[in-house]
Design a protein that fits this description.
This protein is α/β, with parallel strands linked by helices. The chain has five helices and twelve strands. It starts with a strand and ends in a 30-residue tail after the last helix.
Length: 246
């Protein structure tokens, strides 16, 4: 068993098979990795209902079972993100872990968003920072700041974005913004050190290096007690229809 570095993120050669589940946004995806290679993946843009995710997971499990590949763990996106999506994803991941006696790996959603950016090799500056953003509401985003080695520079937070929100870091070095929250910030963040990367989505197939690193380092979760990182409490909407209101 050994670890190699690929574009500043870990890739492990540890003979493991992991089922990956990602439901932090409206995009629902499932993947399977074996020995640091993604051997199966599927995406669905019709939402992350238990029906959609359940059938996708069943197909992934059928694929591995048909090839006699035993799972070692289940990795699930741990948030922040959609309250409903995270809850469904974690519930299904837990069920599989209990049923098959597997380890549970939690992959932070904002770290996950950084993986395709690093693999694309679009960032040239060694001192550049990565700022993954998930859309929250209005001009609010869930965001964090990482260096190119995914060391946390600023912890995850819910930011109300204006032209001064990230000025402290933009005044010092380039910052690359991406994720579905970055699009609405383009016209607001006009600093010359601000760069935007389009088309970056949290997909299960990008979870592989982060999940394998955690498995290698023994960073697994208590299946019974693990809960997603919602960041903000869920607030149910009250219907405007008086017949439906409580």
């Amino acid at each position: 068993m050994h670890t190699i570095f690929n574009n500043n993120i870990y890739t492990t050669k540890n003979m493991s098979c992991i089922l990956h589940i990602e439901t932090s946004t409206d995009l629902c995806s499932v993947a399977v990795s074996e020995d640091s290679q993604v051997i199966y993946h599927e995406e669905n843009r019709e939402g992350h209902s238990s029906e959609h995710l359940g059938s996708m997971v069943d197909e992934a499990i059928s694929f591995t079972d048909s090839h006699a590949i035993p799972f070692d763990a289940v990795a699930v996106s741990s948030g922040p993100g959609s309250y409903t999506g995270l809850r469904i994803g974690v519930s299904i991941a837990k069920g599989i872990c209990f049923g098959r006696d597997l380890k549970l790996i939690a992959v932070p959603t904002l770290e996950l968003l950084c993986v395709p950016v690093l693999l694309r090799e679009v960032i040239e500056e060694d001192d550049a920072l990565l700022c993954p953003m998930l859309d929250a509401r209005r001009m609010e985003v869930y965001a964090a700041l990482y260096d190119r080695g995914l060391k946390t520079i600023r912890e995850v937070g819910a930011d109300v974005v204006d032209n001064t929100t990230y000025k402290e870091w933009l005044d010092q070095r380039p910052v690359y913004f991406f994720g579905n929250g970055a699009a609405k910030c383009k016209e607001v963040i006009s600093h010359p050190n601000a760069h935007f990367i389009d088309g970056i989505e949290p997909l299960a197939r990008w979870m592989q290096p982060l999940a394998e690193r955690r498995l290698l380092q023994g960073q697994t979760e208590d299946v019974a007690y693990f809960t997603p990182f919602y960041l903000k409490e869920f607030v149910a909407k009250v219907s405007k229809n008086p017949l439906l209101a409580p």
